[in-house]
Amino acid sequence: MASSFKSPADTAKACVGIAELKEKASLSNLIVLSFLAGAYIAFGGLLAEVATGGMAAAGYPTGLVKFVFGGVFPVGLMLVVIAGSELFTGNNMYMPLGILEGKASWLGLIRNWVGSWVFNLVGALFVAYFLAYLTGILTADPWAATAVTIAKTKALGGAQFVAAGKTVTSLTWTQVFLRAIGCNWLVCLAVYLAIASDDIIGKIFGIWFPIMAFVTIGFEHVVANMFFIPVGIFIGGVSWSQMFINNMVPATLGNIVGGAIFVACIYWFTYLRGTSKA
């Protein structure tokens, strides 16, 4: 009987094949698919904020609120992986694997990473402005308060602010960086598990658990933050400079470390090192 999933080594080889395809992709495809990935992750973020709006103020336990938030957010990565698109954080794993196996180039990595980052931002901003802000979905309380609190927590660079009658301290640059490492370690493992499965249900379960885990824990995903923080900016309370300096930079760097080092390099070293020559 044929197996419905790949071994870890075969999964690593499949990821290298995907990296080779990304190396050869046209610029137009990279732009369009990156826009879609940013929008898909933003859909997950929008759903998470709608589902948990007002829960904290209503007295629900913090852990339960985080679990509900994390439990619905994975729909974004399911769309990215199964429907197909170019997500910067997933590419942090694919392209280094391709380079280590000689199937991708450093120029291709830079092109892919820069293109996917920029147009992930465009896609996330589209959803944040047109589908979350202008529609009014997140502009009325309790959703507005939830959205602004999330944005401030991520972008104020360690400053304190008041939310729901309590003083809250936002994340520092170092905290964002370290949380971003943990985030993309789990995100790339989710992608890895999805690639390992050969059926849709297996891919969904492979994605759901690690993504639920990273969101519930409170790790930092740069593309998700391209939605969460701009919503707070549009409603009011956070600036663009705070977003980029205090969050986008450390989250991007941390996500690169988490995906490239803790997944791509480790699995290449474990399963693929020396196999090409053999």
From TrEMBL:
Task: Identify one Pfam family in the record.
Answer: Form_Nir_trans
For this protein, the record's Gene3D superfamilies field holds: Glycerol uptake facilitator protein
Gene Ontology cellular component annotations, sorted alphabetically? plasma membrane
Compartments reported by the entry: Cell membrane
Domain of life the protein comes from? Archaea
Give the GO molecular function terms. formate transmembrane transporter activity
Q: Which UniProt keywords apply?
A: Cell membrane, Membrane, Transmembrane, Transmembrane helix, Transport
Q: What are the TM regions of this chain, as residue ranges? A: 27-47, 67-88, 109-131, 176-195, 201-219, 251-272
> How does this protein lie in the membrane?
Multi-pass membrane protein
Q: What is its main location?
A: membrane
Q: Which PANTHER family match?
A: FORMATE TRANSPORTER-RELATED, FORMATE_NITRATE FAMILY TRANSPORTER (EUROFUNG)
> What protein family is recorded?
Belongs to the FNT transporter (TC 1.A.16) family.
Q: What does this protein do?
A: May act as a formate transporter.
State the protein's name.
Probable formate transporter
For this protein's source organism, the top of the classification is: Archaea, Methanobacteriati, Methanobacteriota, Methanomada group, Methanobacteria
